[in-house]
Design goal:
Length: about 325
Amino acid sequence: MTGTLSGSLGTALQRAATANSLQPMNVVHIGLPKCASTTLQNRLFAQQRAFTYVGWINKGYRNSESTKDLIARITFQDSLDYDHAATEAMLRGLPEVTAAPGRPILMSAESLSVEGRADRRLVAERLHRLFAPAKVLIVLRAQPAMLQSMYLHHIRGERITSFEHWLDQNYGGIRFMNLRRIGLDYEPLVRAYDEFFGPDNVVVLPFELISDENSVFHTRLAEMLQLPLADVHACFRQNVDNRRMSKRHLLALYVQGSMPTGTNLATLGRRLLPTPLYQQVRSIVVGGKRLEAPQLSERWCSRVAAACARGNARLEARTGLPLGALGYPV
């Protein structure tokens, strides 16, 4: 053979290349939080059969301690302590992985994309070494709506503070109080994954298109997970996860906030009331009209635009998605 492959060897290699091209890549979903991650994990990722799913499901992990430790190593561990070989062995040793050798892996964890953990570029590098070749899924949300959603999530479990005060605490400077902060300029995060995995393997989808069954959000998910489009539609039609709190729920939190520090009315109710009565009271408290999102002040609208508009414009050009029309400052 001179310069080209011929005969049975060439045919065999061509067949092998074709088979490899049809083999699905691993998939890594890194969040962002407050972008339907729970619905994706519970109702889509855990239900599909083309991939071995490693990640969060129904408020916990399968093989909880080993999976939790694996994700913690990737997201938290200082680079001086991180051991790639040990982490890879832990991944390959998970029961669900050993039960289906050769099957591609689907990992999902919101913590992979937030600040306050290991450096996010370092996390991307670790994921590349563990999973490449792989597709990466990043779901974004318009920054004003993201801040509103994060704040409403915060006050569920903390003493109530004003939206403005919460913004100043968490986004008012480089040093911030909440160690699970979402970096609002998404473009550097996407660019880092583009560099490691290649732009063709990084799928960026806007949360705002979830409700449109004819949108790229549904079609790209179906392609990536090798699922019928109808299965993706069904996933989001069933979405009741992490709904916005009700006005009655907020009122209960105000009452809780007037009590001694550490008081938790939900915990007290579960301890003092029979389960059927507690469930009935809880359904009344959390039911009813949903709370309206708090409005960003003009000061914070300007700050968010100044921090994010340039990156959003670059993402709009990179993805072809109409981010400006979807509420992203550009």
